[in-house]
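Regression test case RT-17, inverse folding.

Input:
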């Protein structure tokens, strides 16, 4: 799946497409307005990709301290990009673009 298909699925579907990784599912649910489901998914995985999404989610929530912790767990520096730009960057990287 490429980024354009991923974004299109947000308009066309009530559930994420089959085969998405947990971090991508979390990004999908967050963009659909279900932060709680996105957070639950990000918390359920222990890899660096999930930690990066987890950091983004806490940044979106406004919990900067928690976001910083998760950026460290992900091996990433704290993002200063606009939130929508960071969402796109994470999605593109996780999709392999």
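Golden output:
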């Amino acid at each position: 799946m490429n980024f354009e298909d991923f974004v299109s699925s947000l308009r066309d579907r009530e559930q994420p497409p089959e085969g998405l990784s947990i971090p991508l599912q979390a990004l999908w649910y967050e963009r659909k307005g279900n932060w709680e489901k996105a957070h639950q998914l990000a918390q359920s995985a222990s890899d660096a990709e999930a930690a990066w999404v987890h950091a983004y989610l806490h940044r979106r929530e406004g919990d900067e301290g928690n976001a910083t912790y998760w950026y460290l767990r992900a091996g990433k520096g704290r993002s200063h990009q606009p939130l929508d730009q960071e969402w796109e960057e994470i999605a593109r990287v996780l999709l392999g673009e």
